[in-house]
Each structure stands twice: as C-alpha cells, then as structure tokens.
Design goal:
This protein is mostly helical. The protein has 3 helices and 2 strands.
C-alpha cells in the first residue's frame, strides 16, 4: 500500500511507488515500474501505471 501525500508531483509519486515495491522485496516489479514510468506523459498516466503495481490510499 502506498500513501499519497498532498503536493506530490508525478516524479515524487513515481519514486515513492518504486521504493514501496523495493521495500516489499518486489525488485523485478520495482525495476519494471521505474522503466515504464520514465515514459508516462502525465500524472494521470503515471497514476494508472502505478495502480497496476500497488494499492493507493490518500493521507
């Protein structure tokens, strides 16, 4: 689960999602998300991409 903090831009969001996967020991998924996230053109696309890997909650 990844908690989204107010004010994050899409790059902070991306890095937090990658870090959450690494922390959970999902290194292959973290690597894949990192690579795929480099091509996301907007926050909306980044959010959809991250949702493929982790559950989100607002905080």
């Amino acid at each position: 689960m990844l908690t989204i903090l107010p004010g994050w831009d899409m790059y902070e969001f991306h890095l937090a999602a990658v870090a959450a996967l690494r922390k959970a020991g999902l290194l292959d998924q973290a690597r894949e998300l990192h690579q795929r996230g480099l091509d996301a053109p907007s926050f909306y696309h980044m959010r959809e991409l991250v949702l493929e890997y982790v559950a989100l909650r607002t905080g």
